[in-house]
């Protein structure tokens, strides 16, 4: 009896770019959630206690997510092309990375547009922010 004919067929290798895309997308969302938690808890206290210097940590944490999402989108597209050309596996991971990356980049673009619109409304039309009008500054 010849056992060589029953040898299992090896699965195609996973694409490294697909793994990178999925991991970058996950890392981007984890840092996004960490930034939210930091800003609404210890970040506010640290910023007040250090007269604004503590906000540097918030800026650094806030920059990691968009970078990870951009990496996820780029490596996801490269992985999709490589998978199509070579027949490697990992298409689902590349798609997951692309979805996470595009949703994150879309949120960043929406946030930037909202900030620009608010600046235009405040500076261009003289609109005020009600909460900031309530703040009274000490006179010396």
Approximately how much beta-strand content do the residues carry? under 5%
Overall shape: it is: elongated
Output mean pLDDT.
85
Give the termini distance in whole angstroms. Answer: 100 Å
How many domains? The number is 1
Low-pLDDT segments, ≥5 res: none
Number of helices: 5
> Approximately how much helix is present in the residues?
over 70%
Over the alpha carbons, how many angstroms does the gyration radius reach? 24 Å
The total beta strand count reads 0
Sketch the topology as an H/E string, one letter per element: HHHHH
Write the layout of secondary structure elements.
Elements: H1 16-40, H2 42-49, H3 55-86, H4 91-125, H5 130-133
Helix pairs in contact: 1-3, 1-4, 3-4
Key features of this structure:
single chain, 140 residues, mainly alpha, 5 helices, 74% helix, 0% strand, elongated
What does this structure look like?
Helix content is 74%, strand content 0%. The protein has 140 residues and is an all-alpha fold. The protein has one domain. The protein is elongated, with a radius of gyration of 24 Å.
């Amino acid at each position: 009896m010849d056992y060589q004919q029953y040898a299992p067929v090896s699965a195609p290798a996973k694409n490294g770019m697909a793994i990178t895309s999925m991991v970058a997308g996950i890392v981007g969302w984890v840092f996004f959630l960490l930034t939210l938690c930091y800003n609404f808890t210890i970040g506010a206290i640290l910023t007040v206690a250090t007269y604004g210097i503590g906000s540097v940590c918030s800026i650094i944490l806030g920059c990691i997510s968009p970078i990870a999402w951009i990496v996820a989108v780029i490596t996801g597209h490269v992985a999709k092309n490589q998978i199509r050309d070579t027949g490697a596996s990992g298409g689902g991971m590349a798609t997951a990375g692309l979805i996470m990356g595009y949703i994150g980049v879309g949120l960043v673009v929406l946030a930037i547009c909202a900030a620009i619109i608010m600046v235009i409304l405040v500076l261009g039309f003289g609109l005020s922010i009600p909460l900031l009008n309530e703040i009274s500054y000490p006179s010396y």
